[in-house]
Amino acid sequence: MMLSFISKRFGEMAVALLLMSVVVFLLGRMTGDPVALLLSDYSTPQDQARVERELGLDQPLVEQYGAFIVNVFKGELGNSIMGDQSPAAELILERFPASLQLAGVALLISFLIGVPLGVVAATHRGKTLDFAARLVALIGQSVPIFWLGIMLMYLFSVRLHLLPTSGYGTAAHFVLPAATMSLFTIAAVTRLVRASMVDILNAEYIKLARIKGLPESVVIWKHALRNSLIPVLTFMGSFFANMITGAVVIETVFAWPGIGRLAYEAILNRDFPVIQAVVLFMTALFIGANLVVDLLYAWVDPRIRYGRR
Amino acid sequence: MAKRLLEVENLKTYFRSQGQVFRAIDEVSLHVDENETLGIVGESGSGKSTLGLSILRLVPAARNPLIAGRILFEGRNLLTLSEREMRSIRGGEISMILQDPMTSLNPVFTLGAQIEEAILAHKKTGAQNARSAAIEALRQVRIAAPETRVDSYPHQISGGMRQRVVGAIALASRPRLLIADEPTTSLDVTLQAQYLQLLKDLRAAHGMSLILITHDFGVVARMCDRVAVMYAGSIVETAPVREIFHRPRHWYTAALLASMPKLDHPRGHLPTIDGAPPRLNDLPSGCKFAPRCAQAQSTCFMQMPERQIISPGHDIRCWYPREAT
After folding, report:
1. Using the beta-carbon criterion (under 8 Å), do A214 and B156 form an inter-chain contact?
2. Across the interface, do B108 and A214 touch by the CB < 8 Å criterion?
3. Model pTM?
4. Which chain B residues contact residue A226 at CB under 8 A?
5. Which residues is B230 bridged to in the sheet?
6. Given phi > 0 = left and psi -120 to 50 = alpha, else beta, which region is B144?
7. Of A109, A286, B184, B205, which is most buried, counting CB atoms within 10 Å of its CB?
C-alpha cells in the first residue's frame, strides 16, 4: 500500500515537472534575445544567423523544446553562455550545498522557536504571553525580507561589528542570513501551532489524559503537541518553497554562494540555459519536498500510515 | 452500615463570562458509599457532566470557573488539595469515562501506550511490567486477542471496542470510584447492554463505587442502587432506585418518569414537560422547576426549598411534595 502510494506520487511529480519545463522553456524564449547579448554591437546579420544556427534558435519552437527535453532526460541542462561556458548542471551542483545548508539551518530554527512559541501562546490564550507571541508572528509575517536583511546587517555588522556582513565560510556567516530567512517561517509556524493547539486542547482525549492523572506538561507537550503538528507538517513543503524563493533575495543581500544567487546572476546576464536549469531544479526540489512531507505525515499520523481502515 | 467513600457538600460550580454568572452546579450535596452505584439523572444541560468534572477538579479553566463547597473523598477535602496531590487522585483513586468513544482516545498513540501511561502515572514499574499490565487491562474489558490489539491504533478498532479501551484506561490503576459520564449514549443498543454488564461486573470485581451519569431511566433501573435527579444544576430528589420508580415525591421526577416511553402504551402522545429549563445565567429566584410545575404555588416562586429528608435515604427539595402513593 505504501509502495503504490509512493509510486503514484512519483508519477504526479513527473507530470508536474514536465508541465513546468514547458513554462520555463517558453519564458526563457519570451523575455529577450540571448543572441543580441552574446554578440557585440558591431556584429553583422550573418554573424547573428550563424550563432542562432549554432544554438539551434532558428528551429521551430516545438523542435527546440523537443531537443531541450531530450537533453534534460540525459542530464544535460545546457551550458552557460557566459564565461567559460561551464555546464549548467555543474554550476547548480556546485552552488546547491550552500543553499541547502542555509535553508536547513533556517528551517531548524523556525521549528525550534516557532513550535514552543505557538504552544505557549495556545496555553496562555488571551494572556500577555499569547499577545506577545502573536505580535512576534504578525511582525514576522509582514516585514519584507530584503529590508530585514539589510537592517540586521546594518545593526550587527556595521554598527556593532559582531558578525560578518556577508559571505560564506564560518558559523558566524550563517547567523544573519539564517535569522532573516527564518523569521517569516517562525511567524507562520507559531500561528499554525497556536491555532491547532487551541483546537486540540478542547479534545476529549486531552480531557482523558488529564483524568489519567498525567502532569499538565505531559498532556500538552506529548498528547496535544503531537496532534497539533499534523497540520503544521502540511505547510512544511511551502515553507521549504519559501526558503528557496526567499533564497534569491537573501543570498543576493548576503552574497551567499547558493543557487538563489546563481539564479539572480543568470537572470541579470540573460543566461537562459542556466535560468532554465535553475528554475527546473527548484521546481524539482519543491515537488520533492512535498513528497517528503507526505511521507513524514504518514509517520506522525498513524491514520494515514495504513492507507485505509 | 456501609462506609462513606465520597461526600459532596453544598458544591457550587459557577462559570463567569462577560460579566454574567452561570450557575452550572448550584448547592449540590450527595454521597456515595463503598461498593455502591449512584445514578445521576437529568436532561442535557442540567449540569451532570460538570458535576463529574468538578469532583476531579477538571472543569475547563477557560470557562473561568468558581468552585465552592466541600468534596470529601475518604475524609479529605479535594477542593483544598494541591495540584500534585490532585494528580495522584485522578486516575489513581477516582477515574472517569467520557461520553464519546470516537474522540476519547488519542489518535496518534497505540492503545497499549495509552494504557501504560495511565499505569505508570501512579506506579513506578518497568516498561515490561506496564506492558503486560496493559494487556491484562485489555483482557479485563473483554477485548479479543489483547496481545496483538495492544499495538493497534484507535482508528483500527470499532466504536464499541474503543469505549471498552477507555474503560481499561480508566480502571488501569484500580480507582476506588469511577465516574461514568453517559458511557453508552453513543453506542448502539446491543453494545450498550454489553457495556453496562461489563461495568457492573468490573465494579463488583474491583470492589469500587460507581457514579453513573445518564439521562436514561432504563440504565438507572438496571445499574443503580440509588438515584439523584438533577434539574438546572440542583439535585431535586435523591432516593433508592425502587423508591424513585414507585414513589417519586418530586414533581419533576414524576414528570420525567411519565415522559419515558412505555411498552404497555404503545400508541398516542408521549407526555412531555411544558416549557424549557431555565437559563443558567437567569435562574428563577424560587424553585427552579416552579415555572414548569403544574402544582406550583406562590411560595414556590419566592424561595428555593431546602433539602428535606422525607423517609430514610430519600430526600427532596420541594415545598409541596407529591403524595407517596
Report:
1. no
2. no
3. 0.82
4. 106, 108-109
5. B235
6. beta
7. B184
User: At residue B203, what is the residue type?
Assistant: R
* Shortest Cα distance, chain B CAs vs residue A193, angstroms: 17
Ramachandran bin of B47, using left for φ above 0, alpha for ψ from -120 to 50, beta for the remaining angles? left
End-to-end distance of chain B based on CA atoms, in angstroms?
A: 28
- Residue B97 C-alpha, separation from nearest chain A C-alpha, in angstroms: 8
Please state the φ and ψ torsions of residue B261, each to the nearest 5 degrees: -65, 140
| Cβ burial, residue B206 (10 Å; 0-12/13-18/19+) | middle
CA pair distance B225, B222, nearest whole angstrom: 9
Write out pLDDT tens, residues A158-210.
Answer: 888 888 878 787 888 888 888 888 998 999 999 999 999 999 999 999 999 99
Please identify which residue in the block is written with the cell numbers 521546481: A283
Buried b (16+ CB within 10 A) or exposed e, A113-139: bbbbbbbbbbbeeeeeebeebbebbee
User: What residues of chain A lie within 8 A of the CB of B90, using their CB?
Assistant: 210-213
Chain A residue numbers with beta carbons less than 8 Å from the beta carbon of B96 are 211
Inter-chain residue contact B156 with A209, CB threshold 8 Å: no
Nearest CB among A204, A215, A227 relative to B104 is that of: A204
